[in-house]
Amino acid sequence: MRTAAAEATATAYVEDVSPGSGTLPPRARYTSSDAKSLSLNGSWRFRLSDTADAEDDSFAEPGHDTDGWAELTVPGHWVLQGHGSPIYTNHRYPFPVDPPRVPTENPTGDHLRVFDLPGDWPVPDDDGCGAVLRFDGVESCARVWLNGTCLGEFKGSRLPHEFAVGPLLRPAGNVLAVRVHQWSAGSYLEDQDQWWLPGIFRDVTLLHQPRGCARDFFVHASYDHRDGTGTLRVDSDVAGRVTVPALGIDVPTGEPVTVPVTPWSAEEPHLYDGLLATEGERVPLRVGFRTVKLSDGLITVNGTPVLFKGVNRHEWHPERGRALDLETMREDVLLMKRHNVNAVRTSHYPPHPDFLDLCDEYGLWVIDECDLETHGFTEQGWRDNPVDDDRWTPALLDRAARTVERDKNHPSVVLWSLGNEAGTGRGLTAMAEWIHGRDPSRLVHYEGDHTCRDTDVHSRMYADHAEVERIGRGLDGGTRKCRELPFLLCEYAHAMGNGPGGLADYQRLFEAHARLQGGFVWEWIDHGIAHPELGFAYGGDFGEELHDGNFVCDGLLFPDRRPSPGLTEFKKVIEPVAITGTDGSVRVTNKYDFADLSALRLTWAYQVDGETVASGTLPLPALAPRESAGLDLPAPPPDAPAGEALWTVRAVLASDTPWAPEGHVVAWGQIPVSETRPPYLTPTARPTPHGDGVLVLGPGTFDARTGALTAIGGVAVVAPRLDVWRATTDNDDGAAWQPERRFGPLWRRLGLHRVRHRLDAVEHTDHALTVRTRVAPAASDLGLRTVYRWTSDGQRLRLTVSVAPEGDWTVPLPRLGIRIGLSSADRVEWFGGGPGEAYPDTGAAAELGRWQSTVDDLQTPYVRPQENGARAGVRWAELGGLRIEGDPVFSLTARRWTTEQLDAATHRTDLSPGDTVWLHLDHALHGIGSQSCGPGPLPPYHLRAEPAGFSLVFSPLPTTPTGPTTPTGPPALTG
Ligand code: GAL
Q1: Mean pLDDT value of segment 727-755
Q2: Where is the segment annotated Disordered (predicted)?
């Protein structure tokens, strides 16, 4: 019988600060043309224990009885396959901080796979060479046995680990046993803001290594923009020859060769197919020539400063977690390219290696980040931070080396990042020094040290616009080194829930100041987990004792990869072609850094009231980067109807590209020709009592006592009344640590979600019905004097609302408009901004036009329900039997639930359609900002509580069904 002490020794590696033992040195990732490989992905046998030492290691012996074990798919996380459950924390460690110790309760998964070698697998004796077993990613610590022999153990979850296994292999019945511990010393280095998901979540592969195989090599492919030549040198562990047929290159490894080339850039990702041939194998190369440099304080590629229009990408799939397949990765890349994204920070670990192949091929700049974050130490003033403790330095250097060695041959990788939010310390310096020495051809990034001691770029996250502008103008403080470096916002525009707002304002700054080389939106995709009852689950949904809720859903894509309005907005804001103009001409500016505009063509449409009257194409000169040209538009068609006219001009792909088909819209602009035409209505009808307490004014039926509108023509309504509340967004609520004023909590404290409507007077004069009210929350002297004035020309009904704040309002209003209920509505048509939602600081992508939708499709499915779906700049809308015109415009929102229900919901599945469709016809809305982790909306987007007035005109549509059905809802206009 083994003693507890013996067991503890047997699992000592789990809490050992070392990176592991028994693994091979890190090396480049490549696929050989010749050497065989065997994927060990698939169904494995699996057994879960509560502690690291609950079971002895006899399971690793061939012949072990696995009856009663479960089946598990590898790659995969066991907690997403019915064994245990995921945990989400942002930065807090979900275990006591006592490095390098981890809890005794340490879920441990024993994985077993029996495999035969394919018939043509070379017998070791035949070629005298071996084989390696490669794990591309295992969280967080594994010990591995093959055929009963312990190979070693490793940590570094999102990094490759290889073992030499040649002599151990048998033709058949090989037993591969892997013991995976959820928690290990390595967990202290992996405190990224994401789900904790243990398991073998990337590929497991057996690779044959013939005698004289390449093993490791480093492709150096630089470009000299002054003379258009590229220089290639491939350093290989094992000497051989390098050929690139298209360039006539045929040289020995280690020897540089310079020839004229087409360079690689993210915009024009030119790759040359080459081959490295050693004695034992041929390895296909994809060579991209480019030179990354700091020149005159700027990051340049091939001599040109680059503007990064980037995103932070965690690996995510709503069912499979971080176990991504190639098609999902490709989908990410295609979505990025189609949305004008040109850069990715692989937050906060090296991605699956195939992702970088896609970045090379389709063209994306990559900041490749090491698998390192120790953010939880901030809770204790960074005491005991592993990056400042020499005992951990070997583990840090191991992580740096595994990142750089694996990914060094990717032209897309232009910066290495040491990690994320790990404080400061000697370990980071050691990593930076090692990387600079190993690969001087790229720059080093790290945000966490604001002195920039170890880095080549000054990087910050979530700096507000004013600070970014100061930095752009060189007015920032800090060390001289930082001030001399180019600036990146490695994270900004927190895309949690509705938002991010303020993107266009950041982009204007980036484009105005050379030193600001762009940023990376946080983040690419919501990490919601598909859940049978909740739709998508987030932190806390698995009963975690510590969690950070829906902070894990802060992406530009919903968990199912549907683009959110934030991504549409980002695409518009970063579009590489600016299209502006005045009547008669259009100005086109090339905002690419490298590409001319020859890949695009220009289309135009002349539209009146949103209907296209004429359309065509315009010749687009192949403008070079930063060039601009004015082009004449054709004469407007002489027979065009009267109305609000504009030109819509689009730059579209002239032919198919690998990432989007011909015709794909890259950029667009609208050039107004004439003004909005507000509805004109002469008040001729008189308010007329009809007995039974009913008052009629034109098509409007009112309750004579309360002045509440009950129907418009045959359309019954829940009377409109002032509405200032919205279901607070994640950005309204803000993050708890935000020093600035967070309006969501302030609004709630003030009671804006529970205002009452006091009826003061109902007056009718010759041509108007006037209802006077005061709208105010309990326990406050703040109020909004609100007057509703109704007039009619007999066919239509005009409502004019005047609002006068009373008291000392120190906060803006969430919204200012009316809410009205309809008994039914489905199809919606409008002339205004669309097709998606738009708020004051998220409206760049709203295109003025005629749009159609349904009430259900107007909803934006934020994982945690919140204010959403407003269509901006609406001139008129038709739905539910009504036509509603703005004077001149309004924001339109329609829902099958109330704001109160939306506000109370925690998941989409909490919302069920009621009998009433609620319309919000808003005069104005408060901005969105990104205060869930950044600055709130800029002051111009605040909806100040000021005297305001607005008008809407209602009329029944001819097709209105006869006989009103009464919608259900709160009684109108009574307090
Ligand atoms: C940053 C961090 C990210 C993420 C983000 C908020 O501080 O680097 O990993 O936590 O905030 O979503």
Answers
A1: 93
A2: 1-32, 956-975
User: What is the C-alpha to C-alpha distance for residues 57 and 48, in angstroms, rounded to an integer?
Assistant: 13
- 234's enclosing H/E stretch is strand 229-236
pLDDT tens digits for range 638-688:
999 999 999 999 999 999 999 999 999 999 999 999 999 899 999 999 999
At the topology level, CATH places domain 294-572 in: TIM Barrel (3.20.20)
pTM, to two decimals: 0.97
Contact by Cβ (8 Å): 610, 848: yes
- Say if ligand 1 is within 6 A of residue 323 CB: no
Instruction: Tell the residue nearest (CA) to atom 9 of ligand 1.
Output: 193
Question: Which tokens go with 531?
Answer: 């859940």
Residue 962 has pLDDT above 50, yes or no: no
Q: Is the dihedral of CA 136, 142, 147, 151 positive or negative?
A: positive
Percent of the residues in the chain that have a pLDDT greater than 90, as a whole number: 95
CA 771 to chain centroid? 47
- CA-CA distances (angstroms) from residue 354 to 39, 330, 410, 438? 15, 9, 11, 23
Q: Which atom of ligand 1 is nearest to the CA of 347?
A: 9
What is 575-672's CATH number?
2.60.40.10
| Surface-to-core class of residue 616, CB atoms within 10 Å of its CB (0-12 exposed, 13-18 middle, 19+ buried) | exposed
Q: Contact at 8 Å (CB) between 280 and 238?
A: yes
Query: Is the shortest distance between the CB of 90 and ligand 1 below 6 Å?
Result: yes
Ligand 1 pocket member 420 (CB < 6 A): yes
Give the DSSP H or E segment for 343: strand 343-345
What's the fold here for domain 4-208?
Jelly Rolls (2.60.120)
Centroid of ligand 1 to alpha carbon of 192 (angstroms): 8
Find out whether the beta carbon of 526 lies less than 6 Å from any atom of ligand 1: no
Closest-lying ligand 1 atom to the alpha carbon of residue 551: 12
Our measurement of the distance from residue 656's CA atom to the centroid of its chain's CA atoms, rounded to an integer in Å, reads 26
Instruction: Give me the catalytic one of 139, 421, 523, 847.
Output: 421
Cis amide linkage into residue 958, ω under 30° from 0: no
Answer yes or no: is the C-beta of 461 below 6 A from any ligand 1 atom: yes
484 belongs to the catalytic site: no
- What pLDDT, in 10s, does the model give residues 869-917? 999 999 999 999 999 999 999 999 999 999 999 999 999 999 999 999 9
- The rounded Å distance from CA 193 to ligand 1 centre is 6
Residue 7 has pLDDT above 80, yes or no: no
The closest of 277, 281, 268 to 244, measured between CA atoms, is 277
- Annotated catalytic residue 421: yes
Asked if residue 421 has its Cβ within 6 Å of ligand 1, the reply is yes
pLDDT at 960: 44
CA 634 – ligand 1 centroid, Å: 49
CB of residue 492 inside a 6 A radius of ligand 1: no
What residue owns the CA closest to ligand 1's atom 2?
193
What pLDDT, on the 0 to 100 scale, is given for residue 691?
Answer: 85
Q: Is any ligand 1 atom within 6 A of the Cβ of residue 933?
A: yes
Catalytic residue among 491, 523, 569, 878, which?
Answer: 491
- Domain ranges in the chain? 4-208, 294-572, 575-672, 688-967
Percent of the chain with pLDDT over 70: 97
466 C-alpha to center of ligand 1: Å? 21
> Domain 688-967 falls in which CATH fold?
Beta-galactosidase; Chain A, domain 5 (2.70.98)
Range 193-219 average pLDDT: 97
DSSP annotation of 196 reads E
What type of residue sits at position 380? Q
User: What does the buried/exposed string (b/e) look like for 449-464 if buried means 16 or more CB atoms within 10 Å of the residue's CB?
Assistant: beebebbbbbbbbbbb
Compute the distance from residue 477 Cα to the ligand 1 centre, in Å.
24
User: DSSP of 777-803, one letter per residue?
Assistant: -TT-S-EEEEEEEEEE-SS-EEEEEEE
Q: Compute the distance from residue 457 Cα to the ligand 1 centre, in Å.
A: 19
